[in-house]
Every structure is written in C-alpha cells, then in structure tokens.
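From the pipeline queue, job 12 of 40. The input is one protein chain; the requested action is below.

Action: predict structure.
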Amino acid sequence: MGLITDRAMHEEESRQQLGRIYIMLMGARFLGTLAAQLIIFPAAYMISMVVQWI
C-alpha cells in the first residue's frame, strides 16, 4: 500500500487508480472476513463435538 500511495503522489494516472485499489482492498477484506466466519463457526462446532466425545 505504501508503494501504491507513493506512486499516486507523483503520478496523475496512479492517483486515479488509487481509489479503485482501495475499494478493491476493502471489498476483499470484507469478503475474507465473511469467509472466515463461515469456516470458523462449523469448525468450532465440530471441535466441541469431538471434545464431548473424548
């Protein structure tokens, strides 16, 4: 991110792309968080089932 921001400070074309890059990064973080939640809850349930079985 630092390199992209630095390049945007010096080049007009990069400045226009910077906004799109930020939006894509925030969207990717959001989707990653949702995917993690979809994986963590079933995994925690499975672990609790195994612990009760043991």
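Job complete. The chain has a mean pLDDT of 85.
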